[in-house]
Amino acid sequence: MRVLVIAARIVGHRCLEAMLEAGAEVSALLYLDDSKAGVTVAHSEFADLIAKYRLNARAFASLKGDEGARHLAFASDAEPDLGIVVGVSELVPPEMLALPAKGFIGMHPTLLPEGRGRAPIPWALIHDLKQTGVTLFYADPGVDTGDILDQEILTVFDDDTAPILGARTDDAACRLFVKNLPLLANGTAARRKQDGGKATYWPRRKPQDGLIDWRKDSRALYNWVRALTRPYPGAFAFHRGRKLFVWQAEDSRRPAKGAPGQIIALEGGNALVATGSGALLLTRVQWEGGDDCAPEDAGLEPGMSFDGALAEAI
User: Fold this and answer.
1) E strands in the chain
2) What's the start-to-end Cα distance of the chain, in Å?
3) What pLDDT, on the 0 to 100 scale, is given for residue 314?
4) N or C: less crowded end of the chain, CB within 10 Å?
5) Rounded to whole angstroms, how far apart are CA atoms 74 and 24?
6) How far is CA 131 from CA 164, 179, 228, in A?
């Protein structure tokens, strides 16, 4: 079975490597150009796999327009039986989807039809989900709407952060692809329609969406920080016009006296900040343009207040 792979990000690299190690015949690879490294979360280079497996490969910046037409011709020349797309935010054009006789398989790190759309790892943590997963599906022109091939359920643990949960969903995606490639080859792969009535949609997130609203309760803000930490752009607040990123925090799980956003104590170099209910303990912070450090080393002290109303200063 000749496979066309369209891949981006670390997850795309990992899934491609797992399939190649399992013996997949990758007749062509389209991988996200390194020029997108500065704007793509968890970008990955593919040069190592291309060299090791002597892949017929070319980079893409877009699958649309004139560039997309050139990539379509490249993919067509590879005569794929199956297509796989993983880690790519851009929808695969209908002309590309129609190339392989066995169709295209996409991957989404949620339990579809829940969480269609963008930023699935951050949204799972922001929504405080206790369970998520990975879905392989038959790609169609819609956004994560195709029939389901296979799923793996994963527990979301209380101390998970975006990179930790993301690595675990990457592991599951690799397992699912390796498991299902032989079934797709011999025609015994499963297929079931999604229940559109149960679908939820998560929107794209932008860096400016990370502003901390200190009026929320401490659990919600703990989820906010762990969801947006690196490799994502980060949760942040302002003090007198200066932007402070919060990369790590803990839910103190205790009542706090103080206005939301006010630092009420320093504890072991960490800053305890009052929230709408409870308090958030900041453990790693960074002033914009500065270094990542402990809150005390950043000059935070009791009595300082963060002003969540300064969103316009971004």
Assistant:
1) 2-7, 25-32, 57-60, 82-86, 104-108, 116-117, 131-138, 148-155, 201-202, 235-239, 242-251, 263-267, 270-274, 279-287
2) 50
3) 37
4) C
5) 19
6) 14, 22, 18
CATH of domain 2-201: 3.40.50.170
* C-alpha dist (Å) from residue 125 to 16, 42, 68, 89, 165: 26, 17, 35, 20, 9
**Residue 237 contacts residue 275 (beta carbons within 8 Å):** no
Domain boundaries, the chain: 2-201, 207-313
* Per-residue pLDDT at 312 exceeds 50: no
Q: 207-313 adopts what CATH topology?
A: Methionyl-tRNA Fmet Formyltransferase; Chain A, domain 2 (3.10.25)
Spacing of C-alpha 136 from chain mean position: 16
CA distance 223 to 190: 35
Q: What pTM, to 2 d.p., does this model score?
A: 0.95
**111-167 confidence digits (pLDDT tens):** 999 999 999 999 999 999 999 999 999 999 999 999 999 999 999 999 999 999 999
82 Cβ contact partners less than 8 Å away, ≥ 6 residues apart: 1, 2, 3, 4, 100, 102, 103, 104, 105, 184, 185
CB 32 within 8 A of CB 40: yes
The residues that bridge with 305 in the sheet, in sequence order, are 262
Q: Which of 70, 89, 83, 101 is nearest to 11 (CA)?
A: 89
Angstrom distance (rounded) from CA 62 to CA 225: 32
DSSP state of 179: H
194 bridge partner residues: none
